[in-house]
Specification:
The structure is a single chain. The chain has 328 residues and is of the alpha/beta class. Helices cover 45% and strands 16% of the residues. The strands form 2 sheets. The protein has an 8-stranded parallel beta barrel, surrounded by 7 helices. It has a two-stranded antiparallel sheet with strand order 1-2. Helix 11 (257-274) runs antiparallel to helix 12. The mean pLDDT is 97. It binds flavin mononucleotide. Flavin mononucleotide (FMN) binds at residues 18-23, 43-44, 73, 102, 104-105, 144, 174, 205-208, 228-231.
Length: 328
């Protein structure tokens, strides 16, 4: 695969980490970067939150210089507010490489305000948002969309052409409608239709859980990059294995139970460096459960981890697990 350029930003690999609220924080992005992610996104950030200088919103904008290129994902539906926050709070951030606009979030509390995937029902407004942001932005601008709103409202192809017309530099397409949320199967045909209709890079997104799935996505859609979401939950090694297969190397790394336990320890230590210890260990609960999914006695361990709030206790539980199961 040829190296992808988004505006002036060149990617080292065409394997992209999808934005995931509550997951792709600064710590997890460090892990995914080590695995070879070529582009990563922040969690979605409210443009209004930025506008009103909400402190939690500012936390979401933390970037580790080593984890670039990184795209900041904003959501909203007021073109003026969005352009304002770009000009005032994003342009001056030299550690942010790309500005992404969320046009795919299906959550009721988001779409009821006309944000996220609701923008696919108001294509003119979506175009205006990109247009206004492009006028002020000093970085490339991308968007992340779905196939459409519902089975009888599939408009990703026209929608993306309109965004390109308004200056968009890259688009990521999740092949599901808003109505599907995360159910059913991603429709790769619609991603291929988007790709055929635009000249900007297209990242194909949806249901990539193995290196072979990534190849299927590329073959069926002709997309320029693959974007991985849920497949990396508990399995950041998937990124490395996809990078391998795209370089015709099928000598995949299969993490052993010990690799996974060691990753939990490493991940927790990194989170503790970043956050208050208690918050970090509470946050680790879901990550540990994902890493341990399918492992022997994983539910018992999960129950123990769900009772603790200190890193030392976490490491103790994990060390006992290693010993009892004689992991090497
Ligand atoms: C927990 C979770 C949080 C997500 N948060 C975001 C988000 O903040 N912004 C966004 O554009 N998409 C978000 N998504 C959607 C993913 O980026 C991706 O489009 C979707 O999961 C489909 O890809 P997958 O099949 O590889 O998971 C989220 C998905 C999940 C599962």
């Amino acid at each position: 695969m040829k190296k992808l350029k988004i505006g002036n930003i060149e990617l080292n690999t065409n394997v992209v980490l999808a934005p995931m609220a509550g997951v792709t924080d600064v710590t997890y992005r460090t892990i995914c970067k080590e695995m070879g992610a070529g582009l990563m996104y922040t969690e979605m950030i409210s443009a209004k939150g930025l506008y009103y200088r909400d402190s939690k919103t500012a936390d979401l904008m933390k970037i580790n210089e080593k984890n670039r290129p990184v795209s900041i994902q904003i959501f909203g539906s007021d073109p003026d507010i969005m352009a304002y926050v770009v000009e005032k709070y994003i342009n001056n951030r030299n550690d942010i490489d790309i500005i992404d606009v969320n046009m795919g979030c299906p959550a009721p509390k988001i779409v009821k305000n006309g944000d996220g995937c609701a923008l696919m029902k108001t294509p003119e407004l979506a175009g205006k948002i990109i247009n206004k942001i492009k006028r002020v932005a000093n970085k490339p601008v991308s968007a992340k969309i779905r196939s459409g709103w519902s089975a009888d409202f599939i408009n990703a192809s026209e929608f993306s052409k309109n965004l390109e017309f308004n200056g968009l530099d890259m688009i990521a397409v999740h092949g599901r409608t808003r109505e599907q949320f995360y159910t059913g199967k991603a429709d790769y045909k619609i991603i291929n239709e988007v790709k055929k209709g635009v000249n900007i890079p297209v990242a194909g997104n949806g249901d990539i859980y193995s290196p072979e799935d990534a190849v299927k996505m590329i073959e069926e859609t002709n997309c320029d990059a693959v974007m991985i979401g849920r497949g990396i939950l508990g399995n950041p090694w998937l990124i490395m294995n996809i990078v391998k297969i795209l370089n015709n190397d099928t000598d995949f790394f299969e993490p052993s139970p010990l690799n996974k336990i060691n990753m939990i320890k490493k991940h927790a230590a990194m989170l503790v460096d970043e956050l208050d210890e208690k918050i970090a260990i509470l946050e680790m609960r879901k990550f540990a459960a994902w890493y341990m999914k399918g492992m022997k006695n994983s539910s018992e361990i999960r129950n123990s981890i769900n009772k603790i709030v200190r890193e030392e206790e976490l490491n103790q539980i994990l060390d006992e697990y290693i010993e009892i199961n004689d992991l090497k």
